Amino acid sequence: MTGPRDPAPAPDRPAPGRARPPAPGEPRDPLAPFAVPSRTLRALASTEPSADGTRLVRDIRRSKRLVLLRAILDAAPGGPAGEAADHWSLLEEAERKDPCAVRDVLHYPATGVWAEETLRRLHAPYGPAPDLDHLGSLAAAAALRAGIDFATTLRPRHGRLLLPTLGLLRPPHPGPVTLTAGSWDPDDPAALPLHALPGGGTSLDDLDPYRAPDGAHPAPVRPARRLTPKGHKRWDTQWSGALTLLERYDTQRAGETVQLLRSVVPLAGGSRSSGATLPAAAGSVLARTQPPPALAATLVHEVQHGKLAALADVLTLHTADRTPRHWAPWRTDPRPLDGLLHGAYAHLALAGYWQRAALYGARGAWAQHARIRAQVAAVLPVLREHPHLTPPGREFVEAMHGAERAMDDLPPPADQHATARRAVERERRSWCEAHPELDPFTRVRDTARGPDAPENRDAGQG
Prior knowledge:
This protein has 462 residues and is α+β, with helices and mostly antiparallel strands. It has 14 helices and ten strands. Strands 6-7-8-10-9 form a five-stranded mixed beta sheet, with helices on one face. Strands 2-3-5 form a three-stranded antiparallel beta sheet. The longest helix has 25 residues, at 51-75.
């Protein structure tokens, strides 16, 4: 099946006879529709990691980023003959020497936030000017990482010059700065290097001004300022502990986390949320400091949001609007269908993770599994019967339902699952009493009730 949905505003076509420099690494047609085979769709719906699913998510993210970058170049003042094209030439030169370094810079999560914001500003008649200087920072970072000889002049902002994936430079004097191949030394007092978390390719990003959309989210997901060395060490310990637990309980999810997460953005103190995922920053999560067991669960949860966001860029799963009208047992506020689907998907993965942790012998894991699975089971009937699901969306939700039912093969001891389901049903009734106008949206039609209806499944489990 296919889902030809443009992941970004379509760029204007170049005028005839006027060559447009392609984005480094750009395929022949990055707007070509992605084919999502049924097998891959159902594997993604189960939340279980798969090579095909991970590859698809990464390919979608790369293609979307290239579309955005191409659109920025086309819309920039001066077009292919302007300053932006000069930066592009430097990127191309760096790519010839080290394609991997250039791809990492262009596909870094914060670059996506900048790209979406810049494209909006380029097409807005009023408002702040687009930050096209950042394209020069991307080019300089790519050139430095590729190790080529170059010279480019950039303008620091607020006395700092960002080099994405590397860190910040604090020039000693105001005004433009000319960067060359020897301009970056992480041991130089003028440099603030990006902190690398233990184990390889994931960074703890507390530097990049585009690590989260500015003003797009309230205080619960506000990114922290630059951490102290003690703060970095604390994150190293928590990250290492979380990955150790993921490896122990669910090796495949540990691998998926490392493959799909390029950066973690620490949340500011006082944040009420334990984690968040921003679609513009694909490959990144925001998270607050927390003990390794909680951080491991947060990573599992947030990675699913990123997977589903990527899939939704190329496949229309539903046609519902954003009106919040559905009950979600993991929140107190009504949710739109998209929010309910995202929440159920992420919690389905958590239920599977805690089931594996329980089988390994983790303390309290069976209770976590039973509670979260009961929450997912309570909303799946509403999702399955929703009239605004598309055929791919219906197939996706049915595969989620199959994954939830498969958990019966390894049930928790005693009647923990039935007890949890009864507790969730009480919560639902209480919520409906507080939101009587939304009660119809928490139920399935009577004609849909049968062996899978919540009350019947409870009876069958004691």
